């Protein structure tokens, strides 16, 4: 009897011991697997979490009131000759105009008398002819804007030369034929590459200063952006009627305390010798933003003294603005990297939406012409749209279009 009890107890202890060992093995395996996953994704984790925390701490705590003097921080001998990009300040003498229209804003051929509300520069690749045509026929249509909205908006496309040598000749011929018809291409003799986006930005601000200083606002946008031009014009007119008179305005989707990307595999990689600090100055997303005429003049002055080796153009814009004492202002209906949701309640307030390489025409018809025929929604319609925007914009996961605050704007 006693022997049997001892045997049963021994068996029970053995089974329990095996279960404990099994549980510990499972725990060890799970811990090891988690460790491996963390090691494999550490670069991504560092990019999205650690580097942002470090950047915010530096920007708003350690150096909150004394950001580095950016006119002095970039080495004057930094080169990027592999892409043909500029390494000195904002001097464009090495890049003569190949296509230019200096009389675009004078009013000689139009009814506006040179009274330009908005100079609209679209950054475009030389080969993106269809995108340019879509913009001309929709939100960049100068005749539509003048006849329907009663204001003068001048559309220009900023381009460089085709980087592919084998395609350069026929692409340049196509650009010249296109420009003979539409007279809206501004081209300088630099390679149209990612590392020359800062060169293209400087070209826009120099052109505005030289040939269109009277424009009340300057907008720069990518050629895959949709702009709800009636909403934008209405907003700019409201600013002009305000007490500030639309001064010191730099408006868009603001990035605050963003860190430089240090991963060498990234398109946006910035080495320490080019920018040694853990945080950029605040800037707006380069996809689309608007500045007032006085700010455009200040940015022009900054490009004359700042070294332009920083090839990420929206960051360089932030450096110029910081140097001149200009701060970006958030507008909740300027989108980030993503598309705005397709819904009439969004169209009522939208200014820009990103990522529209193929659906510009359909969105133009729906967002502008359909909403203009609906009239006032009334109180219940207003509440309905708030509810819809909350569902579309206030998602629990990160969505780089409009912020949740836009639902209540």
Automatic annotation (TrEMBL):
Record's subcellular location: Golgi apparatus membrane
Family stated for the protein in its record: Belongs to the glycosyltransferase 31 family.
Keywords tagged on the record: Glycoprotein, Glycosyltransferase, Golgi apparatus, Membrane, Signal-anchor, Transferase, Transmembrane, Transmembrane helix
GO biological process: protein O-linked glycosylation; sphingolipid biosynthetic process
Top-level taxonomic group: Eukaryota
GO molecular function (one): lactosylceramide 1,3-N-acetyl-beta-D-glucosaminyltransferase activity
GO cellular component: Golgi membrane
InterPro entries: Glyco_trans_31
Enzyme class: transferase
Pfam families membership: Galactosyl_T (PF01762)
Organism: Nothobranchius furzeri (Turquoise killifish)
Protein's membrane topology: Single-pass type II membrane protein
Signal peptide range: none
Catalytic activity: a beta-D-Gal-(1->4)-beta-D-Glc-(1<->1)-Cer(d18:1(4E)) + UDP-N-acetyl-alpha-D-glucosamine = a beta-D-GlcNAc-(1->3)-beta-D-Gal-(1->4)-beta-D-Glc-(1<->1)-Cer(d18:1(4E)) + UDP + H(+); a neolactoside nLc4Cer(d18:1(4E)) + UDP-N-acetyl-alpha-D-glucosamine = a neolactoside IV(3)-beta-GlcNAc-nLc4Cer(d18:1(4E)) + UDP + H(+)
EC number(s) from the headed UniProt entry: 2.4.1.-
Pathway it works in: Protein modification; protein glycosylation
UniProt name for this protein: Hexosyltransferase
């Amino acid at each position: 009897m006693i022997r049997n009890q001892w045997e049963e107890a021994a068996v029970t202890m053995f089974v329990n011991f095996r279960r404990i060992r099994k549980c510990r093995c499972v725990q060890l395996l799970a811990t090891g697997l988690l460790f491996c996953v963390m090691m494999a994704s550490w670069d991504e984790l560092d990019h999205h979490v650690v580097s942002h925390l470090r950047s915010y701490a530096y920007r708003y705590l350690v150096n909150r009131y004394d950001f580095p003097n950016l006119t002095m921080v970039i080495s004057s001998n930094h080169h990027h000759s592999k892409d043909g990009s500029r390494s000195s300040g904002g001097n464009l003498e090495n890049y003569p105009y190949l296509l230019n229209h200096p009389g675009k804003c004078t009013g000689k051929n139009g009814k506006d008398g040179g009274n330009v509300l908005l100079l609209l520069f679209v950054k475009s690749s030389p080969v993106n002819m269809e995108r340019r045509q879509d913009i001309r026929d929709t939100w960049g249509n100068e005749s539509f804007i003048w006849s329907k909205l009663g204001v003068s908006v001048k559309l220009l496309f900023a381009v460089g030369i085709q980087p592919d040598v084998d395609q350069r000749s026929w692409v340049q011929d196509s650009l010249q034929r296109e420009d003979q018809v539409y007279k809206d291409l501004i081209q300088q003799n630099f390679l149209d590459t990612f590392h020359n986006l800062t060169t293209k930005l400087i070209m826009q601000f120099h052109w505005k200063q030289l040939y269109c200083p009277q424009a009340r606002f300057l907008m720069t946008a990518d050629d895959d952006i949709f702009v709800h031009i009636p909403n934008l014009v209405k907003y700019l007119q409201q600013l002009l009627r305000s007490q500030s008179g639309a001064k010191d305005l730099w408006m868009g989707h603001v990035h605050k305390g963003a860190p430089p990307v240090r991963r060498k595999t990234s398109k946006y990689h910035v080495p320490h010798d080019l920018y040694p600090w853990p945080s950029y100055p605040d800037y707006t997303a380069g996809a689309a933003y608007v500045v007032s005429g006085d700010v455009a003049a200040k940015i022009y002055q900054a490009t004359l003294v700042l070294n332009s080796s920083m090839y990420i153009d929206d960051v360089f814009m932030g450096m110029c603005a910081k140097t001149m004492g200009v701060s970006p202002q958030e507008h909740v209906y300027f989108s980030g990297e993503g598309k705005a949701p397709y819904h009439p309640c969004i169209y009522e307030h939208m200014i820009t939406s990103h990522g529209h390489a193929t659906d510009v025409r359909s969105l133009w018809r729906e967002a502008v012409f359909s909403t203009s025929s609906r009239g006032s929604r009334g109180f219940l319609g207003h509440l309905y749209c708030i509810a819809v925007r909350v569902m579309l914009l206030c998602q629990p996961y990160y969505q780089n279009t409009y912020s949740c605050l836009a639902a209540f704007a």
